[in-house]
Amino acid sequence: MFYDLNLPYPTQPNLAQQQTELRKRVDLLIKFGYQVVAYNHTVTGKLDKANPIHKFETYNNSPDSPSGQQQKIEQLSRITVVIEDASQNYGLSSTNSIISSYDIVAAQPTNEKIFQNVCGTLEVDIVSLEMGSRLPFYIKHGPVGLAIERGVYFEICYAPAIRDSASRRQLISNAQSLVRVTRGKNIIITSEAQRAMELRGPYDIVNLGTIMGMNQAMAKDCISTNCRAVVMHAITRRNTHRAVVSFEPISSLKPNELWKVGSDKKNTGKTDFKGKSTVKRVRLSKDDEEEEEEENEVEISQDMELS
Hints:
Blueprint: E1 2-8, H1 16-32, E2 34-44, E3 74-83, H2 97-100, E4 104-109, H3 112-120, E5 126-128, H4 141-149, E6 153-157, H5 159-163, H6 165-182, E7 187-190, H7 202-211, H8 216-221, H9 225-239, E8 240-241, E9 245-246, E10 267-271, E11 277-281, H10 286-306
Helix pairs in contact: 3-4
């Protein structure tokens, strides 16, 4: 399964032209064989607006699709916060209602101090770096290793390399530095394509990854396995407290899972309207009591034989 976790969302989504261009990009991703796409909304400064991303319903691909069947692509929402001031509170936590409305959260640091803060403490899923231009800081082993331990991934966007040659040289140089520091771990490759012509197929990206210093298997993981890990990390961050403890109502348990709350075959679990479980003892019939006594006698005889 191939992922593209950075497809820029239109700044004015109400305009029909921008919606048409976005649909073209998604249609091309489906044709290339992608199964998951994330619409990216970039914010600079504080978060003061609600989630503007509206997902399309379904896609009927071109006649090139097998059997002419309608193909669907999983659509996710993503926010990328450009952090310029380390002392400012950007509200990057799961308790923020605006942040929790997005499926994936990414942060883009602008200096070394913010980069260390993002890698070490902030509740994000992706660290996005401006690879198409000269980075204002060096990528060091310390903060990168801390981010890898926390399950945070680093992003390489390939579209700037297609737009002009200067950005291409800078992107390849920065990507090689990142691959060298991370040893190829916790890296994802995304498009950040503003037009359909900037998109590339999965195996073209694998070839690009080999130029960045990866082998083919490692480059393929950057658009498949690693991206799936980002999505799972985001789900864990949203549904747990600091990715440690999760809370679920007892009413969500299946009948064969009632043992988790102390219920067994002799008990029946009932859930009241507040989601609390009440366990009621069921009186066994005479036949059940005799059957239980026979089972106990068999167990006692087996224990005596073993002894």
